[in-house]
User: Fold ArsR family transcriptional regulator from Azoarcus indigens.
Amino acid sequence: MNEDQAISALGALAHAQRLRVFRALVVAGPEGLTPSVLAERLDVARNTLSFHLKELAHAGLVTVEQQGRNLIYRAEYQLMNGLIGYLTEHCCEGGVCEVSASFPLCKG
Assistant:
């Protein structure tokens, strides 16, 4: 991941509703969710949800797949993990870190 990708991803997540959408997709796992299920679970209007999904997709945080008449949105775990890695890449240089859930957790 480079700086521009990190800025794009963080910018997309810097909105409460988009963060909720992304977290719901992470929880859903690889099966993903349709916009109608997301809208119902998050109590958000479908046109508003569509805008937020577009922003998350533009940042590469979600993918969309057409399955028949439905769209399935999924979290892009590789980009999510890349963002976490980018943010923690130089964590605690010269200090003490703990490894937790496959990435360093800074104590400092």
